[in-house]
What does this fold into?
Amino acid sequence: MAEADRLLVLVRHGQSEWNLKNLFTGWRDVDLTDQGIKEAREAGRKLKAQGIKFDVAFTSALRRAQRTLDLMLGELGQNVPTLKDQALNERDYGDLVGLNKDDARKKWGAEQVHIWRRSYDIAPPGGESLRDTAARVLPYYIQEILPRVLRGERVLVSAHGNSLRALVMVLDRHTTESITKLNLETGVPMIYRLNADSTVASKLDLAA
It folds into this structure.
């Protein structure tokens, strides 16, 4: 089988209403902004320019990721089977959900809020750490997504900053330290080609 057949594309959803307002979103089901719609369409156009035809798509149980996927597929002119699962949802920010990030920094201090947002294993009050998020994302990836990629299906995943960080951490072999510095931009496709042993053969980041 050619390397090109084992294709996995990851995209963080376009800007959401709460991204724009600088609020912790988590599992709250908010929609895309006009900017987010543009980002999703642009992601679709970039993938179309790469000439990729997808066989299947995966997304979370949240509207912003689902709508991003629909807009991308619309630009691609493709209609593929889509599987939705809350295993791919954004991490749950617990008590921080709905709070403005600047207000949270004033309340708990910038360093503590940064630790909650970026650290691997420290969860915000009542919420999930990145490790907790990985504990649901990675089994789903291994059981549902990876087998399709290894069979030669071309797979598109539209999800969230932290559910994708959990996956990228494994794919790109980040440490628990280096993952703290990784922030995924909204609406930027990451094109992975995998080896037969599921490691990464190549990665192309379609940032503007």
The chain has one domain: 3-205. The domain at 3-205 is CATH 3.40.50.1240 (Rossmann fold). The chain is about 40% helix and 15% strand. Helices lie at 17-20, 34-49, 63-76, 101-108, 110-118, 130-150, 161-171.
